[in-house]
């Protein structure tokens, strides 16, 4: 079993890690496509497109619907509509994954500083955390547009290292996609990969995280069991 005894702080991804947000992302995507009179996407398709931020999600949806590469100008024109619809659907169908609230609460009570590091736009991240009763647990919330670069770039994690004044071996990243694993490895921090989220159809173990968990409760077992 991997030893996490040196860990002093924890960063979490959001979509596919804490919250299954695909149903609302799919609703917003399809509302946008419908307005443009384009073919709609399935929820499974949207599930395979998320993870690299809202703009990449919409680019993939438009490419699929048009069966061609969308131009940057077309994408720029479409994004305000998608952002509008996602704001409307933000918390209507999303749900917490099992054992998230109790585990996050236990980690916070144990004294771990916690942060969110997501590629979701910041303007949607905070309301979503509030909607599910998670906002008060996190000392830092970094959206995909909070810094100059987002995952898989290590910048969000190195930013946290500076904010918390800790070394790389004292930070743990927890996420569900290879973007989380790549960012953590580039920042030289430990990373737990979750098997149930969104990872482009690839098992998270392929990216070789420090540890793999099938259930969020296992994180508590790794960090809180002495």
From TrEMBL:
Record: residues binding Mg(2+): 13, 15, 176
GO molecular function list: metal ion binding; phosphoglycolate phosphatase activity
Keywords, ordered alphabetically: Carbohydrate metabolism, Hydrolase, Magnesium, Metal-binding
Gene3D superfamilies tied to this protein: HAD superfamily/HAD-like (3.40.50.1000), Putative phosphatase, domain 2 (1.10.150.240)
EC number of this enzyme: 3.1.3.18
Cross-referenced InterPro entries: HAD-like_hydrolase_sf, HAD-like_sf, HAD-SF_hydro_IA, HAD_2, HAD_sf, PGP-like_dom2, PGPase_prok
Stored Pfam families: HAD_2
Record-annotated active site: 13
Catalysed conversion reaction: 2-phosphoglycolate + H2O = glycolate + phosphate
Protein's pathway: Organic acid metabolism; glycolate biosynthesis; glycolate from 2-phosphoglycolate: step 1/1
Domain of life: Bacteria
GO biological process terms on file: carbohydrate metabolic process; DNA repair; glycolate biosynthetic process
A GO cellular component annotation in the UniProt record: cytosol
First-level EC class: hydrolase
Residue stretches spanning the membrane: none
Cofactor: Mg(2+)
Protein's UniProt keywords contain Protein biosynthesis: no
Keyword Hydrolase found: yes
Family: Belongs to the HAD-like hydrolase superfamily. CbbY/CbbZ/Gph/YieH family.
Cited function: Specifically catalyzes the dephosphorylation of 2-phosphoglycolate. Is involved in the dissimilation of the intracellular 2-phosphoglycolate formed during the DNA repair of 3'-phosphoglycolate ends, a major class of DNA lesions induced by oxidative stress.
HAMAP family xref list: GPH_hydrolase_bact (MF_00495)
Protein name per Swiss-Prot or TrEMBL: Phosphoglycolate phosphatase
């Amino acid at each position: 079993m991997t030893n996490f005894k040196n860990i002093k702080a924890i960063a979490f991804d959001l979509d596919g890690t804490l919250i299954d947000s695909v149903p609302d992302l799919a609703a917003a995507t399809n509302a946008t496509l419908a307005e443009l009179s384009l073919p709609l996407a399935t929820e499974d398709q949207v599930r395979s497109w998320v993870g690299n931020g809202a703009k990449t999600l919409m680019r993939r949806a438009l490419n699929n619907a048009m069966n061609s590469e969308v131009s940057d100008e077309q994408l720029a024109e479409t994004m305000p509509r998608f952002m509008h619809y996602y704001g409307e659907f933000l918390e209507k169908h999303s749900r917490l994954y099992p054992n998230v609230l109790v585990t996050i609460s236990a980690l916070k009570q144990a004294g771990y500083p916690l942060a969110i590091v997501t590629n979701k736009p910041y303007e949607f991240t905070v309301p979503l955390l509030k909607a599910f009763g998670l906002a008060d647990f996190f000392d830092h919330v970094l959206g995909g547009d909070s810094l100059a670069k987002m995952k898989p770039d290590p910048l969000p994690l190195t930013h946290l290292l500076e904010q918390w004044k800790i070394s790389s071996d004292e930070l743990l990243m927890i996420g569900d996609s290879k973007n989380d694993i790549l960012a953590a490895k580039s920042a030289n921090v430990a990373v737990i990969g979750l098997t149930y989220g969104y990872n482009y159809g690839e098992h998270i173990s392929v990216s070789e995280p420090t540890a793999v968990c099938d259930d969020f409760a296992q994180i508590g077992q790794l960090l809180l069991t002495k």
